[in-house]
């Protein structure tokens, strides 16, 4: 498996089966397409290749409207490579590339640089300047060039197609069980643990803090969550607060994770927080004592939920 930036020059792959898409989230719909790419590649004895951008085009073209991405470029590339494809080819998306016509994208990128012999795209695929290209026009143009094209139908869950937009909405509204179902895994946030003001430790609930300011990812709304936290020392359940800590008059968005039954040092280490369930909204309490009492209730609820989940899977 190899990862290559198209700006470094055409990769020396040779004829291939190519999957094209944005692949933000690498959700279950994407995985159906990728499974088809790999299956066709093995059948035709060709490399299985994916082409995507680093960030969703909307993030560059309409930043004021973009709610956030489901995966950072690093997360997306890692997830794509883990599916079993042979190559992941990406291009940083910018305003210059946004002016590429559909025909130029097909002939210069897909056929000339990537040498596709069969192309797989999703049912709602659009491409080229102003998204003028569609899956139908792509297949017509490729047929004229002697290249096969497959349009992969939608994956339906809960009566609706799985899509990145639907998952973003689920996360942004705290519907984390729905997001997990559509992604095939929990929505997550990865960052390096920073020093906070140590109020959690003073109250008896030490936390691993992540700074959320400037994050490009879509995040759950401010509130308290039951999560799993992956660390170098292992995975732990955690009670997580996302917000500004209004009880103490703070304004900077922070993620604070209290890992259950953990006593190590995580400062300056990367951790991944996987969101499982929203417990409540963030609230301004009249005193730190009232906040401590609520945290104790939150912890009791979290432990009850963890125990119930273990009983169901036993």
From TrEMBL:
The answer on whether this UniProt entry bears the keyword Nucleotidyltransferase reads yes
EC number(s) per entry: 2.7.1.26, 2.7.7.2
Quote any Pfam family the record assigns: FAD_syn
Which GO biological-process labels does this protein carry?
FAD biosynthetic process; FMN biosynthetic process; riboflavin biosynthetic process
Report the pathway entry. Answer: Cofactor biosynthesis; FAD biosynthesis; FAD from FMN: step 1/1; Cofactor biosynthesis; FMN biosynthesis; FMN from riboflavin (ATP route): step 1/1
Q: Give the source's domain of life in one word.
A: Bacteria
Which residues are in the Riboflavin kinase domain?
Answer: 182-307
Q: InterPro entries recorded for this chain?
A: FAD_synthase (IPR015864), Riboflavin_kinase (IPR023468), Riboflavin_kinase_bac (IPR002606), Riboflavin_kinase_bac/euk (IPR015865), Riboflavin_kinase_dom_sf (IPR023465), Rossmann-like_a/b/a_fold (IPR014729)
rRNA processing: present as a keyword of the record? no
Recite the UniProt keywords alphabetically. Answer: ATP-binding, FAD, Flavoprotein, FMN, Kinase, Multifunctional enzyme, Nucleotide-binding, Nucleotidyltransferase, Transferase
Recorded catalytic activity of this chain's protein: FMN + ATP + H(+) = FAD + diphosphate; riboflavin + ATP = FMN + ADP + H(+)
Extract the GO molecular function terms from the UniProt entry.
Answer: ATP binding; FMN adenylyltransferase activity; riboflavin kinase activity
The entry's family comment says: Belongs to the ribF family.
Q: In its UniProt entry, what is this protein called?
A: Riboflavin biosynthesis protein
Protein source organism: Candidatus Ozemobacter sibiricus
